């Protein structure tokens, strides 16, 4: 273990230089708020995260809170001769407060709606003060998903807010919107979550929908209040768009298509293993480069991270089929794909900015963003509608064709009312024939072992699908999905008194599966969608 320290000596030196070059008025705790764990803890990070015998879940150590100054911990570790796993674990426990599995909810026999209302307080975290480690402090209270997810998450929060709205917890919603506005103001975007190791990526841009929820309670003046944050987030997603050309058609999250249209992709600004999934990413990259000649590990890491930005980590949406005609994680190619959900969300963001400028008595700017949304809508209908499948599908801009993977992302154009009536009817037929199961709708119809594929159903996609179908008068199918989903939630709750992160909607006698971690309970977005649908 001692010999491996040489491999990362440059990283340690860089970290020291970063600290030494900081203003004298900057405290070490303030430093810790911006450094990811691999830079914060240096060789200790690599030794712990590379050793599966220390923590089963790679997220455990990166969420640990240092009990001493980071400098003292690094200095002490550099002087040790660690010769066993138990010695390494003892060092960590001596110097860190290691998180547990999350809150232990007290089960009771209250109704599911009352249980969820109680859970808001269990999942609430106060405004952050005196934070060290990897947590990015937020100025207002917020709701976390639950389980291993001990921090706020971007797209989760929109679906959580649906339930908070039903329970008339408008102050909680406003606090969370203000927290996200704070993150946009400070970092230029909303990170995946409020951890330093999430500062290289975002998540599906639902901020505009959160503002809309708040406006439903407090009036349209809310759009004017949050306009500058809406526009700043938009600039993050569109960074580099003005410089694209035929020679350089892609940069970060923007892609120029052959006829000059610009659509977006998921991305991550780093090409290293995710700190919170370090061992898993190393294993995936090693498998990938052993199978695919010329492939670089950095490309695999980037694509894994980009899939994490999508929130669908992981799914057949981002995979190719291997030689045995199976979807394998090692074939991941997220950055070559223009996703349906992302581009419809950005259409919505453009539309909401246009509305906000209109409310702010700036018709010229309003018109600019209206034209942007109209251009995007045309591009979505041109590239993301498949005449072969009669469904909205992700587009592989390298191969210049649809990915051939159908998913519930295809319901997003109905949710944001981009589809025409004939397309909506075709989408509804496909959902009924390929996605509808006894417990709701599956994310995709493919059984790959990944958690965002069959047999799993997820609360956010039930909501998007139900609302999308309702927008086009497909009320019978929407009600069927809603009823199946609510009954499944109720059935599991009656057995366990828990709300789960995801559910097996194909075989109601089995638990959900797949993914890098066990099914979590809590659970923010499941609570929110259940509360919204059940109280209608």
How far is it from the N-terminal to the C-terminal residue, by CA?
A: 58 Å
Find the count of extended strands (DSSP E, 2+ residues). Answer: 16
**Class inferred from helices and paired strands:** mainly alpha
* Biggest sheet statistics: 3 strands, antiparallel
Average pLDDT over all residues = 92
Structure, described:
- The protein has 536 residues and is mostly helical.
- Among the domains are: 3-97, no CATH class; 275-335, no CATH class.
- Helices cover 48% and strands 6% of the residues.
- It is built from 22 helices and 16 strands.
- The chain has helices spanning 9-20, 28-32, 37-41, 43-49, 59-62, 70-78, 85-95, 112-123, 154-166, 170-187, 207-218, 221-225, 227-237, 278-291, 297-310, 340-359, 363-383, 412-415, 421-435, 459-471, 475-496, 524-534, and strands at 65-66, 96-97, 124-125, 142-143, 250-251, 254-256, 262-264, 337-338, 385-386, 391-392, 395-396, 401-402, 436-437, 440-441, 456-457, 503-504.
- A three-stranded antiparallel β-sheet has the order 5-6-7. It has a three-stranded antiparallel β-sheet with strand order 8-11-12. Strands 1-2 form a two-stranded antiparallel ribbon.
- Helix 13 (227-237) runs antiparallel to helix 16 (340-359).
- The longest helix has 22 residues, at 475-496.
- It is globular, with a radius of gyration of 23 Å.
- The termini are far apart.
């Amino acid at each position: 273990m001692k010999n491996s320290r040489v491999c990362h000596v440059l990283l340690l030196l860089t970290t020291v230089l970063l600290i030494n070059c900081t203003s004298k008025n900057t405290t070490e705790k303030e430093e810790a708020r911006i450094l990811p764990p691999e830079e914060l803890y240096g060789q200790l990070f690599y030794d712990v995260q590379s050793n599966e015998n220390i923590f089963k879940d790679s997220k455990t150590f990166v969420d640990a809170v240092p009990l001493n100054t980071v400098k003292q911990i690094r200095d002490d570790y550099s002087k040790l001769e660690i010769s066993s796993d138990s010695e390494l674990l003892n060092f960590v426990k001596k110097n860190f407060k290691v998180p547990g599995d999350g809150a232990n909810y007290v089960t009771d026999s209250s109704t599911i709606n009352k249980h969820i209302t109680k859970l808001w307080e269990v999942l609430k975290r106060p405004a952050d003060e005196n934070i060290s480690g990897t947590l990015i402090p937020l100025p207002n209270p917020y709701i976390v998903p639950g389980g291993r997810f001990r921090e706020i998450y971007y797209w989760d929060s929109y679906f959580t807010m649906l339930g908070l709205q039903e329970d008339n917890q408008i102050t909680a919603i406003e606090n969370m919107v203000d927290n996200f506005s704070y993150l946009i103001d400070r970092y230029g975007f909303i990170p995946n979550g409020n951890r330093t190791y999430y500062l290289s990526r975002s998540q599906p841009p639902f901020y505009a929908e959160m503002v809309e929820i708040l406006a439903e309670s407090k009036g349209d003046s809310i759009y004017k209040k949050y306009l500058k944050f809406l526009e700043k987030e938009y600039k993050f997603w569109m960074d580099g768009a003005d410089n694209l050309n035929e020679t350089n058609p892609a940069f970060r999250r923007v892609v120029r298509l052959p006829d000059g249209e610009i659509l977006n992709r998921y991305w991550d600004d780093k090409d290293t293993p995710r700190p919170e999934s370090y061992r898993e990413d190393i294993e995936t990259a090693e498998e990938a480069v052993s199978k695919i000649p010329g492939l670089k590990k950095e490309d695999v890491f980037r694509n894994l991270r980009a899939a994490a930005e999508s929130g669908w980590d992981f799914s057949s949406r981002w995979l190719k089929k291997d030689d045995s005609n199976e979807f394998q994680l090692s074939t991941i190619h997220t950055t070559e794909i223009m996703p349906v959900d992302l581009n419809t969300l950005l259409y919505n963001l453009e539309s909401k900015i246009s509305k906000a400028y209109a409310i702010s008595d700036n018709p010229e700017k309003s018109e600019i963003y209206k034209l942007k949304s109209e251009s995007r809508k045309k591009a979505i209908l041109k590239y993301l509608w498949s005449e072969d499948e009669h469904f909205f599908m992700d587009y592989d801009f390298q191969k210049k064709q649809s990915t051939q993977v159908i998913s519930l992302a295809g319901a997003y154009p109905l949710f944001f009312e981009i589809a025409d009536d004939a397309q909506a009817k075709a989408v509804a037929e496909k959902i009924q024939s390929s996605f509808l199961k006894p417990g709701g709708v599956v994310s995709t119809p493919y059984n790959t072992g990944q958690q965002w594929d069959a047999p799993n159903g997820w609360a956010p996609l039930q909501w998007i699908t139900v609302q999308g179908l309702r927008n086009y008068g497909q009320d019978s199918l929407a009600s069927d999905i809603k009823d199946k989903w609510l009954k499944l939630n109720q059935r599991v709750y009656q057995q366990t008194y828990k709300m789960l992160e995801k559910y097996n909607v194909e075989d109601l006698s089995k638990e959900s599966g797949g993914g890098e971690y066990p099914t979590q309970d809590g659970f923010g977005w499941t609570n929110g969608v259940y509360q919204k649908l059940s109280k209608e």
